[in-house]
TrEMBL record, chain A:
Residues 3-153 form the UBC core domain. The lineage of its organism: Eukaryota, Fungi, Dikarya, Ascomycota, Pezizomycotina. InterPro entries: Ub_conjugating_enzyme, UBC, UBQ-conjugating_enzyme/RWD. Keywords: ATP-binding, Nucleotide-binding, Transferase, Ubl conjugation pathway. This is E2 ubiquitin-conjugating enzyme. GO terms for molecular function: ATP binding; ubiquitin conjugating enzyme activity. Its EC number is 2.3.2.23. The keyword Transferase applies.
TrEMBL record, chain B:
It holds the Pfam family IBR_1. It comes from Xylona heveae (strain CBS 132557 / TC161). One of its GO terms (biological process) is protein ubiquitination. This is RBR-type E3 ubiquitin transferase. Gene3D superfamilies: 1.20.120.1750, Zinc/RING finger domain, C3HC4 (zinc finger) (3.30.40.10). PANTHER family: RBR FAMILY RING FINGER AND IBR DOMAIN-CONTAINING.
């Protein structure tokens, strides 16, 4: 629907003008407004600091009536991100019960980044990582940092 | 059920102090609590049959309702509660749905803190605004970003205003695609206000309204503990039964929907009398996890006493080496081989400690496996036989037609075949579950009676089942015999179920597991 394109264009313009901290957003392909390429800096004071994560944001045809989907393309060691090739992030706002047509992509990106700063082990998709996060924080941070070096270092 | 039979049932219960001795005083027995706090969903559609037989110990009171009955009953409740709260019907409906139809709690809460209750149900901010769309100067829709002059817009009392087109699209998507009805929120980000029925009336197209009401009826039944949808595919009826969750270790509430389907009101699985839901759940899980059966090992295999992996004995040598952990042991005594010296050909170390421990463990696990299989095989056999009987049932109709033409009997007269095969189905179903029940039963002075009843029913069933093997030409002559055998089957079933139910109600059965933690 035409309305959807208009809304997406507006959101893209707003995000470019007033970027959420540590995030840059661009269209994967200028002719397709439904696929956004996101670069997210690991928050300071988190084991992900210094890392740069590539994410893919996909908007459904029925956007904004249906929520976007967010996927980590860079591997990340995190209790709320699936440790597979899907790299799906479990975010409340992305669930259809919580998503509202007036919710914005910038809010999704902010929430996603704050989840990097503060993982939510009680709502985990990777339970073993969540267990480690709760019971052996040191080891969790060590592995998370190691993964940052291995997969998310900026020059790569 | 007649009033008399119910009284009898209740008085029988109260003489034993009811189900929950010394527990919550509001629950004395099944059904009663329900009738205390609200009238049964009875619109005179279900005439109580005064001539019906007195209730059996395993029977429960229940009623069956169609979607219209439920809708009418909802409306009646909304009117009643609305009058008490002084709220219009649409707000009352939202309040009731939000309170999951617990009207006592709703009224009580509302009397104490009306604003709180309204706020939590998404009805905050007083002052009635009529539901209508309007044009607002300089309006830009936050959803579609449309800013055309003259755009129709809509907002509920929360003031989150969007163009009417977006509002409509949002509602129809929630109803059509997500099947949401009772708790659709305002499309505003973070706003939890529930969309009221006036808004829906205004914005939703007629075909969706039907769907919406259908969904509301669904949620109503889903919200009520004493109402459940019949699980039969495509069945539109709901069954009402007052048996509470906490009573399920004392009674197996089996109900019959108007569509003919028998199911357990407790767990909605097919009729599983006489076994309580908790044991059914455990049993099904056990059968599903068939590793035990898969590991069932003939006399020629044993488990390695060290790593437990299965080892097959080949040839006559008793010196075994586990392929997995390389443990060497003696086949006869299960003891460590090195302790044997050279006497391997004639194991004389049967009492050796290392061997006797391993033997004990092995014998135990084997014994429990064999015990399980004993019951499982009989359970599975009746399940299988019931399927075969079902084939017979399907052939029955054909036979009946044949019988009518060959014997000149009327349709009514050949009904005995249909009755017989239905009885057979039901008895097999019961027998099947007696084996799951028996598996968890710890022996006491009552088990023998149970096993006798089980045996008697089994014999009655096999005798009746045999009759169906007879050639159709003989069936007419066997009518009396078959009817006798059918009623005998039913009688044995009633005896078994009554005995089991009585003991369950009294807590007289002892189980070899803790049924309360299941
Ligand atoms: Zn709009
Ligand atoms: Zn709102
Ligand atoms: Zn039914
Ligand atoms: Zn059940």
């Amino acid at each position: 629907m035409a309305g959807s394109q208009r809304r997406i264009a507006k959101e893209l313009a707003e995000i470019t003008k007033d970027t959420p901290e540590g995030v840059t957003a661009n269209l994967v392909d200028e002719s397709d407004v439904y696929r956004w390429s996101i670069l997210m800096e690991g928050p300071e004071d988190s084991p992900y600091a210094g890392g740069q994560f590539k994410l893919l944001l996909t908007l459904p045809v029925d956007y904004p009536f249906k929520p976007p989907a967010l996927k980590f393309e860079t591997k990340i060691y995190h209790p709320n991100v699936t440790n597979d090739d899907k790299g799906a992030m479990c975010l409340g706002i992305l669930k259809s019960e919580e998503w509202k047509p007036s919710s914005k992509i910038s809010a999704v990106l902010r929430t996603a980044r704050s989840l990097l700063a503060e993982p939510n082990p009680d709502d985990a998709v990777e339970t073993s990582i969540a267990e480690q996060f709760k019971n052996d924080r040191k080891e969790f941070e060590r592995v998370a940092k190691e993964w940052v070096t291995r997969y998310a270092s900026k020059r790569a | 059920m007649s009033a008399d039979s119910e009284d009898e049932f209740m008085s029988g219960m109260s003489s034993e102090g009811g189900f929950e001795d010394g527990n919550e005083s509001d629950s004395v027995s099944f059904g009663e609590e329900f009738e205390d706090d609200e009238p049964a969903l009875d619109f005179g559609l279900h005439d109580k049959d005064i001539t019906s037989a007195p209730k059996k110990p395993y029977e429960v009171d229940f009623d069956v309702f169609g979607p219209r009955d439920i809708q009418k009953y909802q409306d009646k409740q909304i009117d009643e509660v609305g009058a008490i709260l002084g709220q219009p019907p649409e707000s009352t409906a939202i309040l009731l749905r939000h309170a999951r139809w617990n009207k006592e709690r709703l009224i009580e809460g509302y009397m104490d803190h009306p604003e709180d209750v309204l706020e939590k149900a998404g009805l905050g901010l007083a002052g009635a605004v009529p539901a209508k769309t309007m044009v607002v100067d300089g309006f830009v829709c936050d959803i579609c970003c449309e800013d055309e002059p003259g755009l129709e817009t809509y907002a509920m009392k929360c003031g989150h205003r969007y163009c009417a087109e977006c509002y409509r699209h949002y509602l129809s998507q929630k109803i059509r695609e997500e099947g949401e009805a009772a708790r659709i929120q305002c499309p505003g980000d973070g706003c939890s206000r529930i969309v009221d029925s006036k808004t829906l009336e205004l914005l939703v197209e007629d075909d969706l309204k039907d769907r919406y009401h259908e969904l509301l009826t669904r949620t109503y039944v889903d919200d009520k503990d004493n109402l459940k949808w019949c699980p039969a595919p495509n069945c539109i009826y709901a069954v009402e039964c007052g048996v509470k969750k906490r009573d399920l270790n004392r009674i197996v509430p089996t109900v019959r929907c108007d569509c003919g389907h028998y199911f357990c009101f407790g767990c909605t699985l097919n009729d599983h009398l006489p076994t309580p839901c908790a044991l059914v759940k455990m049993w099904l899980k056990k059968c599903e996890d068939d590793s035990e059966t898969a590991n069932w090992i003939s006399a020629n295999t044993k488990e390695c006493p060290r790593c437990n992996s299965t080892i097959e004995k080949n040839g006559g040598c008793n010196h075994m080496t586990c392929r997995k952990c390389k443990n060497e042991f003696c086949w006869i005594c299960m003891g460590v081989w090195s302790e044997h010296g050279t006497s391997w050909y004639n194991c004389n170390r049967y009492e050796e400690k290392s061997g006797s421990d391993a033997r004990d463990a092995q014998a135990k696990s084997r014994q429990s496996l064999e015990r399980y299989l004993h019951y499982y095989n009989r359970y599975a056999n009746h399940e299988q036989s019931a399927k075969l009987d079902k084939d017979i049932y399907l052939k029955t109709e054909k036979k009946m037609t044949n019988l009518q033409s060959s014997s000149g009997m009327s349709w009514i007269e050949v009904q005995f075949l249909d009755t017989a095969s239905q009885a057979l189905q039901q008895c097999r179903q019961t027998l099947k579950w007696t084996y799951a029940f028996a598996y968890y039963l710890a022996r006491n002075n009552l088990t023998e009676i149970f096993e006798d009843n089980q045996k008697d029913l089994e014999m009655a069933v096999e005798n009746l089942s045999e009759m169906f093997e007879k050639p159709t030409s003989e069936l007419a002559a066997l009518k009396v015999d078959m009817m006798d055998k059918t009623s005998y089957c039913n009688k044995r079933r009633i005896i078994l179920l009554s005995d089991t139910a009585e003991n369950l109600k009294n807590g007289s059965w002892k189980f070899n597991i803790d049924i309360n933690t299941a």
